[in-house]
């Protein structure tokens, strides 16, 4: 692992005395060393991973760039959803099967991955919760995408940048693509998202699960203002998962949960009702679980989801849809997630990179 800045003390915002230029130089040197070590691995899923802080509007976001040992021109840029963390995209643990890691699957397919925390989450700058909006998160996505294309983050410039999100961060990803006048995004992966959400279930989940993080776990979230919310212990299984979810995965998800702000949640929801998707000019894949409480009846099958989503997009988006039958909202962590990973891999290879 390449550590650029100290990433411990999760309850306190990190210090940012190091300039962006200095960070870039350190990354380039460390990545060169890391690549020489990683190249000896025989594991096809092996990758050189670099935790780092990236300067964006509003501060810095904590991020992890994982690149396969073989050269690649494609990177998948990801954000966790509301109350999720980077662990959602790279689920690991002594009792968690390796196939649950989406980033590992993409690295094994020959793509780099970069997971970025939103402002206020992970080790990112933590401003007052009420100042956070989905539009700022979308702007940050575009800034990081530009850095990846320019080769500013310790790797060679990437020719293709696929942006992906889940739930709240799918909304911010859609916003980013809809405002991407500089053509920094080449493909859009939206998961746990549709333009036909079940509002009654969303309200029920919010009422049952979301509380101020500092009151839920005063030690873990010490210093967080009361506008930062997380989920109550044990509530995530019913809200986000299918009934047969691996208990080790549920435990890992609970242990690694994070926070979100109501202001960014509400502003992200506008992506489901406003015609933002018609301004997206890159290929789009929408992937959901058939047992997702938030997706209502449109997630019964891939065809039904496509019929519901297609009117929102332009033909040039080449909309594809995928529904995983035995998955809830957290499609990355379903027992059958390998089928979804394969669908994403094939879409990137045959559509985005073609």
List keywords for this structure.
alpha/beta; 8-stranded mixed β-sheet; globular
Describe what you observe in this structure.
- This protein is α/β, with parallel strands linked by helices.
- Helix content is 32%, strand content 17%.
- It contains eleven helices and ten strands.
- It has an eight-stranded mixed sheet, with helices on both faces. It has a two-stranded antiparallel sheet with strand order 7-8.
- The longest helix has 19 residues.
- The two termini are 32 Å apart.
What's the quick description here?
The chain is α/β, with parallel strands linked by helices and 354 residues long. The protein has helices at 20-38, 102-108, 134-150, 168-178, 199-209, 213-216, 236-240, 247-255, 262-269, 302-309, 337-352, and strands at residues 47-56, 59-68, 74-79, 112-116, 160-166, 187-191, 210-212, 229-231, 284-289, 320-324.
Give the total of beta strands.
10
| Count of DSSP H/I helices | 11
Pairing-aware structural class of the strands and helices? Answer: alpha/beta
Rg from Cα:
19 Å
